[in-house]
Amino acid sequence: LYVTLNRHFIQIRQTKNMNKLLVSIFLLVGQIIFYSCHLPHDREIICETNFKKARDLAYKNPTDSSALDSALIIVNRSMQCDSIKLAVIDLKIRLLLTLGKYNEGSKFIDSLQSSDFNYSYKKPLNHDNFVALSFASQGDTVSRDRVYKKMAADIESYITGNNLKSKEFQEAFIDLNILQERFLDSIALKKVVDSFKIKYPDEERFFEFFKN
User: Fold this and answer.
1) Nearest to 64 by CA among 31, 102, 100, 99
2) Per residue, what are the HEC states of 61-105?
3) Of 71, 101, 107, 109, which cross-links 127 as Cys (Cβ 3.0–4.6 Å)?
4) Contacts made by residues 192-196, CB under 8 angstroms, sequence distance 24+
5) Are 147 and 110 in contact, with CB atoms under 8 Å apart?
6) How far apart are CA 17 and CA 206, in angstroms?
7) Whole-angstrom Cα distance, residue 197 to residue 83?
8) Whole-number pLDDT of residue 29
């Protein structure tokens, strides 16, 4: 009888221990799920806070190199957040341009995907702009202008080779026009406008801004 009772109590103790173990496991799993659900949200909040801090620092100190360097360090902490990634990339590009970090800028653009920009043509455009400015900073205006002409040709090919929606077309055309104004006269610029009127007839009112 003693042996039987002893076995019974041992079984009860083992059952209680097993129940405690199961409860602990369920609590642990619950905590993991809870924190895994909240971590992305918390990370987004931190990213947005860092982005705003970097943006404010840059806008309040547009000519202060040390402040802009600090803003660049801060904005790098926001690169992993998808919800504001486009804005973060745009700010980082602006900071690199202002600081004259052209080689770092071209490498940064290389590390990105076309989908990291509003429109796919923006990736090569930004990359080549850093390259052109790097040449300019070295006093090599010949190479700079060669890159600018390549950029213009690439955008023109992009516009003619695709059926762009109005907003994208207008932005691409403005980028093209800014580049071509560097090396085309008004007559040549007008011919460019006229050539696009055929492919994009619905943009007639938009083209009015580029008559002169």
Assistant:
1) 99
2) CCCCHHHHHHHHHHHHCCCCCHHHHHHHHHHHHHHHHHHCCHHHH
3) 109
4) 192/156, 196/159, 196/160
5) no
6) 77
7) 37
8) 46
Q: Which residue shows structure tokens 């080549």?
A: 128
Which two three-digit tokens encode residue 156? 């023109």
* Token reading at 84: 């504001």
The pLDDT of residue 33 is above 70: no
Identify the residue whose tokens are 């943009």: 203
Local confidence band at 42 (pLDDT 50, 70, 90 cut-offs): confident
* Residue 81: predicted pLDDT: 79
Place of tokens 């947005």: 48
| Amino acid found at 56 | D
Pinpoint the alpha helices (H) of 111-208: 122-137, 141-161, 166-180, 186-199, 204-207
Closest CA to 129 of 99, 153, 109: 109
